Amino acid sequence: LHVFIFVLAVFHVTYSVITIALSRLKMRTWKKWETETTSLEYQFANDPARFRFTHQTSFVKRHLGLSSTPGIRWVVAFFRQFFRSVTKVDYLTLRAGFINAHLSQNSKFDFHKYIKRSMEDDFKVVVGISLPLWGVAILTLFHDINGVGTLIWISFIPLVILLCVGTKLEM
Asked: Which residues cross the membrane (predicted)?
C-alpha cells in the first residue's frame, strides 16, 4: 500500500508540473496577441462601430466546421483538440466579447494577465486530491485482489472521459 501511495504521489506531482509548464508555454504565444491589441491598426480594424454579420466572421466559419453532419463534426472536433486549440482569431474574439460584456469600450484591460491569473486559480482547485478520490483509489486497489486486472481497465476510464470532454469543447 505504501508503494502505491508513493507512486500515486510521484505521478500526481509530475503530471501537475508538466501540465502547468505546457499551459504557460501555450500562453506565451497569447502574450504577443495581447500586445498586438494595443496597436492603432488593430483598434481601427476592430472598431465596434463597424458592424459585421456574425456568420461572416472567421471565428464562426472555423467553429461551424467542414460539415453540418454530426458524425463528421465529432471526428473533426476530436482531432482538432490535439492541434492549435486556441487560434489567434479565437483569442481576439474571446477578448473582445469579454471586454464588451464586462468593461467599457476604451479600457486598457490586459486580458492575457486576467487569463493567466484565472488559470492559476483554477489550477489550485483542479490539482488537489479530494477525500472521495483517495477512497476510490484505495477501493480500486483492494478490489484487484484476485488479479482480474481491474487496475488496468479502470485506468482507461479517465482517458476516455478526457477525450470526450475535449472533443465536446472543440465543437
From this structure: 6-25, 123-142, 148-166
The count of structural domains within the chain is: 1
- Are residues 140 and 150 in contact, defined by beta-carbon separation less than 8 angstroms? yes
- Counting Cβ atoms within 10 Å, is residue 95 exposed (0-12), middle (13-18) or buried (19+)? buried
- Residue range 23-81, pLDDT digits in tens: 888 888 888 888 887 776 666 666 555 545 555 555 555 656 555 677 777 777 777 77
Closest to 171 in 3D by CA, of 27, 68, 19, 33:
68
Residue whose C-alpha is closest to residue 64's, from 47, 53, 49, 76 = 76
Q: Which domain holds residue 64?
A: 2-170
Q: What is the 3-state secondary structure (H, E, C) of 60-126?
A: HHHHHCCCCCHHHHHHHHHHHCCCCCCCHHHHHHHHHHHHHHHCCCCCCCCHHHHHHHHHHHHHHHH
